[in-house]
Amino acid sequence: MQLLKLHLLFGACVRSVRLFRVITRCGSHGVGKSNLKQSVINLLESENINWNEENRGTLLIKLNGQREFSFLDSGSDSE
């Protein structure tokens, strides 16, 4: 999650970066219930970041010029 947040910050600073592909895998036995995937989705939704599920194990994140993130205000990097 820390690496994803770093990439989001990078994308906010570099205007040419607007899309990220995050590979979360499908979860155990391919049933689509990955804990990592749900954590990423929770972060994206809390930041109002547009995303689509490219397939069961990949999320496509669209920054659309977003420059500020609420996770910078929190002291926790656990999520």
In brief:
The protein has 79 residues and is an alpha+beta fold. The protein has two helices and three strands; from the N terminus they run H-E-H-E-E.
Per-chain topology:
Elements: H1 2-13, E1 19-23, H2 35-46, E2 50-55, E3 58-62
Antiparallel strand pairs: 1-3, 2-3
Helix content: 25-40%
The percentage of residues in β strands lies in 15-25%
State the CATH architecture. 2-Layer Sandwich
CATH class: Alpha Beta
Q: Can you count the helices? A: 2
Mean pLDDT rating: 84
| Main sheet: strand order | 1-3-2
Number of domains: 1
Distance separating the two termini: 6 Å
Protein name: Smr (Small MutS Related) domain-containing protein
Keywords: Signal
Organism: Artemisia annua (Sweet wormwood)
Signal peptide: 1-19
Commentary on this structure:
- The chain is an alpha+beta fold.
- It has one domain (2-67): Ribosomal Protein S8, Chain: A, domain 1.
- The protein contains 2 helices and 3 strands, in the order H-E-H-E-E.
- It has helices at residues 2-13, 35-46, and strands spanning 19-23, 50-55, 58-62.
- A hairpin with a 2-residue loop joins strand 2 and strand 3 (58-62).
- It is globular.
- The model has no long low-confidence stretch (mean pLDDT 84).
